[in-house]
Write a structure and sequence with these properties.
Layout (H helix, E strand, L loop, with lengths): L22 H8 L18 E2 L5 E5 L4 H6 L6 H13 L6 E5 L6 E4 L4 E4 L4 H18 L3 E5 L1 H8 L5 H4 L4 E5 L2 E8 L2 H6 L3 H18 L2
Parallel strand pairs: 2-3, 2-6, 6-8
Antiparallel strand pairs: 1-3, 4-5, 7-8
Length: about 220
């Protein structure tokens, strides 16, 4: 007799996404998602946070170590950089909806104490999580999507996306059946890794000012 496949072997979250759910019900359903193997090692699902009436949706890559432990997106060092840059660009962080293309923390263990080190999700894992992002877009209906980094860009715009080619520009594309305006920029974690952090931060703020101007 053939052994039944586990849900994560199908690499899609679609069976776990409830139809016609509000954001609260969606978040509760996501807590039990087994749409890909990443749920096995992560502490918990880290779903999006913010108001359904937000004009701006910010989409990052995946939760980090602190986000995985606390269950909320962008609460670690990169989140602090993002909030500061948003405010400086003229976008109130409290009036945005923030989420990630992938809802579980992917990591390897390394060094003393086997510290958890971020590992980029694969295209297959990103695609598996796509139904959650599609549901968030459908409920929030943002006026503008700020794309934070390459993984988020590929999740929304396809594998040929290159953040360096289009950052700081306003794009118009069909995303999950909706015509969307998007402004790509780097992920705020790249600012923390940059040799010249100040220059990298100024570049992030400059891109976010384009987003702010697009909302006027």
């Amino acid at each position: 007799m053939a052994t039944a496949k586990a849900p994560e072997d199908a690499y899609t979250a679609a069976p776990f996404v409830p139809e016609r759910a509000d954001l609260t019900a969606l978040r509760e359903a996501a807590a039990g998602c087994r749409g890909c193997p990443l749920h096995r090692d992560a502490t918990q699902t880290v779903f999006g946070a913010g108001d359904t009436g937000a004009r701006v949706m910010l989409v990052g890559e995946q939760p980090g170590d602190q986000e995985d432990r606390r269950g909320r997106p962008f609460v670690g060092p990169a989140g602090k950089v993002l909030d500061r840059a948003l405010a400086e660009a003229g976008i109130d962080p409290g009036e945005t909806y923030v989420t990630n293309a992938v809802k579980h923390f992917k990591f390897t263990r390394s060094g003393p104490g086997k510290r958890r080190i971020h590992k980029a999700p694969s295209l297959r894992e990103t695609a598996a999580c796509g139904p959650w992002l599609a549901a968030e877009l459908r409920l929030v209906e943002p006026e503008l999507i700020v794309v934070l980094g390459a993984t988020a860009g590929k999740a929304l715009l396809g594998s040929s996306f290159r953040v360096t080619e289009v950052r700081g520009t306003v794009l118009e594309e069909e995303i999950h059946g909706r015509r969307e305006r998007l402004v790509p920029t780097v992920h705020p974690s790249s600012v923390l890794r940059a040799d010249d952090r100040e220059a990298a931060y100024r570049g992030l703020v400059s891109d976010l000012k384009v987003a702010a101007h697009a909302l006027v």
